[in-house]
């Protein structure tokens, strides 16, 4: 059975993606701080199908962290077919308040970690004819006020997706999913007002984590001739930003 590593998979979108891929994959659940949630998810998945899920911890703060995570993920089931780069930091950085630490957090989780984890796992993915799916953002193309660093990091992730798709072809496909309004931040911030955003979505509603999970699953399981693409799952929001 094929094996998928999903970063940031203990909760929110990552959990939904892990549950969707678990239908026909063994899954490696990565977490940073949410150990209890990760172990609870693994226990739930293993009750559904024994010995089909494991949890691995990594801060994903350095290239060495990514390399160690790659090794632990491969140890979980002896091989790897799918990498989903989902782990992401998100918070506003208005000009005049951004710090180097903010830069490192946002670029690190949204761009640096996906690159070095993809690089570390490229040999295994090539050997298995695997794929990578990155979680981008519709604001990689159209910026969100007060979120310059986050938007720049996601824009970099989109180019990383396209560049890796060329470099790792033909053995490995690389695509991205760009969510719109799916899950709301715990605290409202400048440029991210829920009512204003919903009013500008053509479908007049937010999406569900399953919308993202099914798009990822489609790219993993049913899109053998799609590579280098970014699929917006946003209810048409990117048409009206």
Automatic annotation (TrEMBL):
Enzyme Commission number(s): 1.5.1.33
Molecular function in Gene Ontology: pteridine reductase activity
InterPro entries cross-referenced by the UniProt entry: NAD(P)-bd_dom_sf, Sc_DH/Rdtase_CS, SDR_fam
Enzyme class per UniProt: oxidoreductase
Keywords, comma-separated and alphabetical: Oxidoreductase
Domain of life of the native organism: Bacteria
Family assignment from sequence similarity: Belongs to the short-chain dehydrogenases/reductases (SDR) family.
Protein name per its UniProtKB record: Pteridine reductase
Gene source species: Microbulbifer bruguierae
């Amino acid at each position: 059975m094929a094996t998928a590593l999903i970063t940031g998979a203990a909760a929110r979108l990552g959990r939904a993606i892990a549950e969707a891929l678990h239908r026909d994959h063994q899954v490696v659940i990565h977490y940073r701080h949410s150990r209890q949630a990760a172990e609870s998810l693994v226990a739930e998945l293993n009750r559904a199908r024994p010995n089909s899920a494991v949890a691995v911890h990594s801060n994903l703060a350095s290239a060495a962290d990514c390399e160690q995570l790659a090794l632990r993920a491969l140890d979980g089931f002896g091989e790897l077919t799918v990498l989903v780069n989902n782990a992401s930091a998100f918070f506003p950085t208005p000009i005049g308040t951004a710090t180097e630490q903010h830069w490192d957090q946002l670029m690190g989780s949204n761009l640096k970690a996906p690159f070095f984890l993809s690089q570390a796992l490229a040999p295994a993915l090539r050997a298995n004819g695997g794929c990578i799916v990155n979680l981008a953002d519709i604001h990689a193309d159209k910026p969100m006020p007060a979120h310059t660093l986050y938007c720049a990091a996601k824009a970099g992730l989109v180019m990383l997706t396209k560049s890796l798709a060329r470099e790792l072809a033909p053995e490995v496909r690389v695509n991205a999913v760009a969510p719109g309004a799916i899950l709301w931040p715990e605290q409202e911030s400048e440029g991210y007002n829920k009512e204003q955003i919903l009013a500008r979505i053509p479908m007049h509603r937010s999406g569900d984590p399953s919308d993202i999970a099914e798009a990822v699953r489609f790219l993993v399981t049913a899109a053998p001739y799609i590579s280098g693409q970014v699929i917006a799952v946003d209810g048409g929001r990117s048409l009206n930003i």
